[in-house]
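Think of the structure tokens as a kind of shorthand, similar to the way a musician reads notation: each symbol stands for something richer, in this case the local conformation of the backbone. In the example below we present two proteins back to back. Begin with the first one, reading the sequence and then the tokens, and try to describe in your own words what changes along the chain.
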Amino acid sequence: MKVLHMPSGSDISMLAKQMRALGVDATSASFSSKDLYGYRADRNLNVDQFPPEEKKAKIEQIFQEAMNEFDVFHFHFGKTFNSKSDIAILKSKGKKMVAHHRGSEVRLLSLAQKNNRFASIKSKWPEETVHKYVRRLSASIDHAIVPDYEMLLTLSLITNMCTSFCAPSTYHRIHRFIRKKRINRSSFMHLRTTKLKAHHSF
């Protein structure tokens, strides 16, 4: 099983490295030259340096090559190769996918402010955009990772795609569960803070 972590951020390299230490063939790929942590990634693709039409063709080339090389696609920040057909194609090819969220893209302000009146989101993520974004992902991706229960609740309200997971040292387990098809419906996974033991329910 080969896993691809993409397209940016410090976690893609950290998790790929940790998964390799645990025996999983994992690779991190940074897509942008503006990625502050791109230097840590296994592959630096820098597609933003191409003119628009060349960039589009380059991303398509990378997508086709990755589809042939990898079995599991771990999309950090929920960002995929493009916003049109990529994840639907991956699903049709039997590829396993995980959407990994961290903030405004899966935060409903009306929900967040019920527990924290100081909660805020980035202006480019109004609630209608969050709904549209999550529904597009959930049409093809069955599993998601979020860092807290507020985001977990957001996903559960919008779609039945939901997996919560909280520790780098055990991220490989979600891929193992998916690969063996031990998860066949919406699931909630989290790590206890006192003992390094994953708990899951199906």
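Once you have a description of the first chain, move to the second and do the same.
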Amino acid sequence: MSQTSNLAVDPEQAPSNQSASSVISLENEALVWSLASSEAFEPAPIDINVSRAVQIELQPLHWNNYDTLPTSIKLTNTGETVILSARWNGEGPSLVGGPLEGRYLFSQAHFHWGKTALDGSEHTVDGYRLPLELHVIHFAERFGDQEAALAVPGGVLCLVYFFNLKSKANRFIAPVVEALEKILLPESHTKLTPFALIDLFHPFRGEYFLYWGCTRNGLQVAPMLWMLSRTQEPLDFCQLKQFNRLLDRRMRPRFAHQPSEVAPSKGRHLFHVNPRTPMAVSTLMIEPPAKFSKTRWLVDSQRVDWNSPDACRNYVRLIREHLAEKLQRNDDEQCAESETTSGSQG
């Protein structure tokens, strides 16, 4: 069982990252689900800001079969978005743990982008949009299929990943980006060489944001639970621009559509789940996912706790040490080369 927390009923009246005097003495999972009836039909997306998030401890999430190779992967331009779907022999990917009641099965993943790198994401972070946003959709196994789950609060779960620009291409998203030229027209699709889905994004057991909200498509309302990773995925500018070539049903560039309007978050609960520190100062973390540990950029490769007040000072110190070591290695190599040359001439 997870820890019991004392959380404010009204997050607007609570001090940042602290509980208020009016508390709910429920286990944390029960607290999350107690908000479904009142907040699941509030509109999404919202602005994500760590300063207004209430910290909460939940059981870790468990990721099952995300590293299992699917038998097929299909990429589709619907005219509204790009959807990635897949099939497996046997059991497909699923999530359990955290605030989830039962097992949630992978359904599909889709992307959101804009005309520029400044208006791509659906959610805003501290009031600003990011270049690209990935939604990974799951539905509760107990409903049998996504269509039945859509009508019930918590029947559908949306994992959110933000992408930020880097100078180096992301090799993990490359198979998707390279296939976009085959689906420029709406209602077109193509098959990809199968790869493990976890290559496209990353698992997280904690350090994520959680809230209730719904999306609307005409008369259809889909109340769902949202989990947003604090760790960003990278991509370079050339990869981002490939999404801009896709056409909608009116044969216009998809980026001509305006991003969704961000809904007011006043009076709604935004949870910061299993934070590493009680004093997080940035909404998103700068550290890249672990899968990039062998291919990190210099700016990302320093082991710095970015939530620490001394983060910038430690970062500068580590960069200086790194450059000094590199300079020393170059000097040593030049000396060794000079000695070798002198010896051969003698």
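Compare your description with these statements about the second chain. Residues 1-25 have pLDDT under 50 and may be disordered.
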